[in-house]
Write a structure and sequence with these properties.
13% strand
Length: 259
């Protein structure tokens, strides 16, 4: 039987490698698992400007190709990067697992206003850094109904003492809607490869109307990518912390299908 493919984990907005600690703890079978970290969220100073969808997709593809292709497990906004990777570099993708992926349409903003906001945030990051751990904690708690995993809490608070992490998080926030627009264009120009796809949708804590809209958006995405869709009605957005066992079960199914 062929070796199972490598698994590449990539976090959502302002996320880093430590987000996946509960999943790694829950993995029982041997897997070749690698965690991708983006500039600024890995301790390095991010370059000025906004990250682009194509650059993020190429970064993900390069990481997968170092292992002969990979099953990509992408949370939240990194689902945009992963889909774009599959469309731009189909041979790099063996299977795709999307954990509560970002979904929707973008409203237009002039590029100059985004770049001005990025420059302002970059210069303010040093002043904001003393409050970084508290900002990170508030954001993390909003994404889960459970206590923060101790290893994640410790690492996240430490990382966000850094102006680099705050800058990178701000850059990713500003780049979100441009990436949605760029992905819409990419979808018109390319086809998605015929690889297995799983989409997990978290609607825990949402109002009924918001949950219906979110679920419909993911249903359309599953149809677009030819994927399987699973609804998790009691889980909130950060699925790696909320239900690592379900995430592991899905990763194991993806690695089997990606052999």
């Amino acid at each position: 039987m062929p070796e199972p493919p490598a698994v590449l984990l990539t976090s959502g907005m302002a996320g880093a490698a430590y987000d996946w600690e509960p999943v790694l703890t829950a993995l029982s079978a041997p897997h070749h698992v690698h965690r991708l970290e983006r500039p600024g969220l890995d301790g390095r100073t991010p370059p000025p400007g906004l990250p682009s969808l194509h650059d993020e997709a190429d970064l993900l593809s390069a990481a997968a190709d170092r292992h002969g292709g990979a099953v990509v497990v992408a949370h939240s906004v990194s689902a945009l990067h992963a889909e774009a990777m599959g469309r731009r570099h189909p041979s790099s993708l063996r299977a795709l697992v999307l954990l509560d992926p970002s979904c929707g349409s973008a409203s237009p903003h002039p590029e100059w206003s985004l770049l001005a906001a990025e420059a302002l945030g970059r210069h303010a990051a040093t002043c904001i850094a003393p409050f970084g751990p508290a900002i990170w904690t508030a954001g993390a708690r909003a994404q889960t109904s459970r206590p923060l995993p101790p290893a994640v809490r410790s690492a996240g608070r430490a990382r966000f003492r850094s102006p680099a992490a705050l800058t990178a998080a701000w850059q990713e926030y500003l780049a979100f809607e441009p990436m949605l627009r760029d992905l819409a264009v990419l979808r018109q120009r390319t086809t998605f490869p015929p690889v297995p796809v799983w989409i997990l949708t978290a609607v825990g804590g949402m109002r009924a109307s918001a949950a219906v809209r979110w679920t419909r958006c993911h249903t359309r995405l599953a149809r677009l990518l030819g994927g399987r869709h699973r609804l998790l009605p009691h889980s909130r957005h950060q699925l790696a912390w909320e239900c690592p066992d379900v995430v592991v079960e899905t990763i194991e199914a993806a690695t089997e299908s990606g052999r």
